[in-house]
Amino acid sequence: MNLAFKDIRFNLLRFLLTALGVAFLMMSSMGMVGLYRGIVADALLIIERIGADQWVVQGGRQGPFSEGSAISSTLDRRVEGIAGVASARRFVQFSQQFTLHGRQLRASVTGLDFPKDPGRWIPIVRGRLLASGHYEAVADMSIGLRLGEMVHLGQDDYTVIGLTRGMVDTGGDGLLFVTVNDAVAIAQRRTSEEVLLARAGAGPAAASRSSVPQDSKIAAVLVTLNPAVDPEMVRRAASSWGDVNVLSRTEQENLLLNQRLWRLRVQILAFTGVLLVVTCIVVSLIIYMLTMENLHEIAMLKLIGADNSVIIVMIAQQAFLIGASGLGFGLMLSRLVFPFFPRKVLILPGDVALLGIAVAVICAFASLLGISRALKVRAQEVLS
Amino acid sequence: MSDRVVSPAVARGAVASPPPVLSIRDVQRFYRSGDTTVRALDGVSLDIHRGEVVGISGPSGSGKSTLLLIAGLLEPPSAGEVLIDGRRVSYPAADLDRLRTFRRNHIGFIFQKANLIPFLTAVENVALALEIDHVPPRAARAYAGALLASLDLGHRLDNHPSRLSGGEQQRVAVARALANAPSLLLADEPTAALDSVRGRQVLQLFREIARTRQAAVAVVTHDQRALDLFDRTIELSDGRTRDVAMHGTPGAAGTH
Q1: Total tally of structural domains belonging to chain B
Q2: Could you tell me the CATH number of the domain that includes residue B237?
Q3: CB contact A381 to B (< 8 Å)
Q4: B14 pLDDT band (50/70/90 cuts)?
């Protein structure tokens, strides 16, 4: 006879409410881990999808994600001349805020070196890729733009001809793909006041400059290497010019994860740890209180001669059932709720498995608390 | 109560039969309370034989419950010894936790409250006592059902305790106490929560059990109306046996 199941079936509502409480804790833990995974995935998204073997950036800098980078708009031609380089594309990305139908929208404008790079690596969910050198845009759905909608950026209007899902930058802003030339034009937008101020401060020569620190808006050149070429050879060749720095894809990923996002990652992981400790305390208290509620029955079991193993199995099974149900409900809640969150929450099977192990450890600890109390109960307490 | 219901424990030959079933010899029990020593029992001796129903009465604090705890192997005596079925099982400093299996197979308990496990049905409450004794679940349930039917609870097998009346709960508790065919039944105020008619029915049930199962039954009671149903009544006062009144068959009575 399975006493744990009998008790749970008899007090089903209490069990369900308890499991639901644990489920919300599990959902929070999963959410924190998922948020961490989402931030990492978002950060690496463009680096992984864009498919560059090397990033040629401004000399002495580690851009364009970790710090600013501005290179000559014709650097791609120089890079194409290095032996072993299959292709070189210009890359530009910057955040842009704009108004549409009275709504304030925000996007990360990303330049595609059209026609060399029409953006075949972009996962289109509706519409099509860029087919023209100007005034077309592919927008991520998170920006809030619809297919066919026109948006005014810089001095021009752009038509949304394609939509993507889940294409965001490290800050969570949806990507808006336009051609590199359009992106540069959007970035060089200046207000009349800016032009006048620039003229007043530095004379007519300065008035033609951009209001942003660098003249060029091109941040990097993305290099695709021939399969047989030694990447170090290409790096040495480009570095010898003195005005550029060359980063591999792995270095770019490391820079993002271990420098730019380092504090955020540690913060989220630390908070996940705190949540697990809270879960441990709450589950332990629940199991302990359940044991306290059943003390009379436990004394009765001892009185009628039940071995300690009967009592231990009952408490441990209840603890693990609460933990397993909490994890299951938590997973279901996560799948229902997290898609509505503004940032990506990525629940990976491996993380769920690790959380399952953590829950098992927590339940084992909670069981020990309950069992140690139950084993102290004396059979004669039935009479009290 | 049917004579035909045979316990799996009986079928395994687990019940020994040398009389007396319970023998308490010069038992003392002291409790320390600060600097003073409280003598709960002070040299009590008692034998209860097979088929005998013995009442134990006395005012509050006379030591009745302590005597029951010591006889039931739930507390060790401070001095003296307890023999069950001729085996010396309890004495000062005895490790009673190790006697759990012995208690399971030799002693049945019934209390003022039925103390049924609330999340188990009537038949499960009884079957649990058997399953704990390693009887297979199906056989345990079948025997528990038969036992409850013999106590006129055949129609209540699948009811939880909360759906049973006080008298029905007490009968389920009796069935649970009988499940492992114990040679000794210890009852602590089993009729206190029942009206006089139902209380008398429970005591008559004990008589029937003592007769048909040849069990020794000790009943702690305040109920003066049912004294005629006991073979003997032992009165305790200040931890000592004050009086032994004979009601039943003279040959069955033990002495102080």
Answers
A1: 1
A2: 3.40.50.300
A3: no
A4: very low
